[in-house]
Amino acid sequence: MLLHWNRTGLISFCFLLALFLLHIAPAFSAEQKESRYNIGPGDLLGVTVFGEEDMSLKEVRVSATGTISFPLLGEINVLGLTSKMLEKKITAALKEGYLKKPRVSVSILQYRLFYVHGEVETPGGYSYVDGLTIEKGIALAGGFTERASKRKITLVREDDPDNPVESVGLNIKVKPGDIISVGESLF
Asked: What is the CATH number of the domain that holds 85?
């Protein structure tokens, strides 16, 4: 059966579809980003066990070894897990003798630091924010010094420290744990 659309019906359908997509797209992309983010040392997490306030953690920092301390369960290795994977891990552990139907929610309250050093005004570690680029990271570090070379910027990824990327552009995305090095200009 073929549908016959008149011009007004087609325009109305397209308008409603656009509104629907605009409404769900921001929520989907934010949820998708957090679900792909791998937890690492220094991240600040919030863990809620619904109906069990004593088991919830308003704020817990991931240790240097990639663990968190959780009530009744002790040390939990969270290194490399996404928030959804950690929710499932805690839920499964709580089902084994503690709660019948635990409902767990994990959120990332603060990402771990990224680092900027070399020819910048204020080298150091800075709080990661979503959408950060090399240029924005350098701006957070006070900008380039007079001797800085905008062509000698190296990026070391936390997940691939043995393969630094040399001569990166200013619009390259930065991830938590990354290291930005700004080299010195010869002139």
From this structure: 3.30.1950.10
Instruction: Tell me the DSSP string of 28-66.
Output: HHHHHHHHHPPP-TT-EEEEEETT-GGG-EEEEEPPTTS
List phi, psi (to 5°) of 114. Answer: -115, 165
Taking only the tens place, the pLDDT of each residue in 131-157 is: 999 999 999 999 999 999 999 999 999
Report whether 39 contacts 80 (CB < 8 A): yes
Contacts of 25 (CB under 8 A, 6+ apart): none
Phi and psi (nearest 5°) for 23? -75, -40
First-to-last C-alpha distance (Å) of the chain: 74
Structure tokens at 101: 């139907």
16 within domain boundaries: no
**3-class DSSP state of 113:** strand
Per-residue pLDDT for 171 more than 90?
A: yes
β-sheet with 44-49: strand ranges across: 57-61, 44-49, 104-110
Give the structural domain span for 137: 113-184
User: Considering its fold, how many domains does the chain have in total?
Assistant: 2
105 within a domain of the structure (yes/no): yes
Model pTM?
0.72
- Reading the block at residue 174, the tokens are 């930065």
**Pair (122, 174) in one structural domain:** yes
